[in-house]
TrEMBL record:
SUPFAM superfamilies per UniProt: IVS-encoded protein-like
Coiled coil: none
Name of the protein: Four helix bundle protein
Pfam families xrefs: 23S_rRNA_IVP (PF05635)
InterPro entries (UniProt xref): 23S_rRNA-intervening_sequence, 23S_rRNA_IVS_sf
Taxonomic superkingdom: Bacteria
Lineage: Bacteria, Pseudomonadati, Pseudomonadota, Betaproteobacteria, Rhodocyclales
């Protein structure tokens, strides 16, 4: 599609959108008293991952893209911690699928950061 946004072609963005949907379903399992605490934090972190990938892809430079990928990876780490906490508190039992998604997205983001940095270094030489 000619008007397609560049972030939509990125597998990291596509997979993080799926993760955000998964996190919304997962947070529905949390107790009602966690609605404005852990649940809200998990949802914000999950939303932030694809949002930062999209914002970085829309920026004018590869350096900015790497910066926003770093923010996305930070949100992913935040979410990973929150998933572990939800499991440790006994709010959710089976987190294997969502943890596998998190691991996959870490690899995708790290790969994007590495390849973009390599392009930056090549262009500066």
């Amino acid at each position: 599609m000619p008007n397609e946004r560049p972030h939509r072609r990125l597998l990291a963005w596509q997979e993080s959108m799926k993760l955000a949907t998964h996190v919304y379903a997962l947070t529905n399992l949390l107790p009602a008293e966690e609605r404005f605490a852990l649940s809200s934090q998990m949802r914000r972190a999950a939303i932030s991952i694809p949002s930062n990938i999209a914002e970085g892809a829309a920026r004018g430079s590869k350096k900015e893209f790497v910066h926003f990928l770093g923010l996305s990876r930070g949100s992913l780490s935040e979410l990973d911690t929150q998933i572990t906490l939800a499991k440790d508190l006994g709010f959710v039992m089976d987190t294997a699928a969502v943890e596998a998604q998190v691991n996959r997205i870490f690899r995708l983001i790290n790969g994007l950061i590495s390849s973009t940095r390599a392009t930056l270094e090549t262009n500066h030489q």
